[in-house]
Amino acid sequence: METHSVIFNSLTAELIQRRNQVHDICRQFSRSPSRGNLLRLKSLFASCGEEVFIEQGFYCDYADKIALGKRVYINVNCTLLDGGLITIGDDCLIGPNVQILTINHAVSPAERLDKKNFAADVTIADNVWIGAGAIILPGVSIGAGAVIGAGSVVNKDVPAECLYAGNPAKKIRRLE
Predict the structure, then answer these.
(1) Which domains are delineated in the chain?
(2) 16 backbone dihedrals φ, ψ, rounded to 5°
């Protein structure tokens, strides 16, 4: 899989301010996952379909790069690092402690000293189930109807209607 990533500077004054505002809203929602705080959180997203439910402990950086389809369920303590776009289709189930990451740091020590970050979008198609504790890495696309096993680290695209599991995640079988 070839991933297209762009340089991303998370240290601009504008992004620091946005992150601080969104983190405050996430903390309020975690302390008190009331309907009002959930609506406030959802209003930050680029888009949010009907009947989306998010359990407490949800965390994201910017929120405006997150698009959620209809009937998405996000379980407790999920982290979405959204320097790049995160698109989650209709009817997806996101297990507890899942991490969906679009940000990566430079591998080169010299570039890391320059604080270079890279963003690569993550796309999750309709009717995907991501098991507890799975980590979806930057630039990954997951096809419709796929299942990601608990604790998996997904570093490559996953085709539709397949079960992937492990670290790194590998195809277990095609789903019928």
Answers:
(1) 6-174 (2.160.10.10)
(2) -60, -45
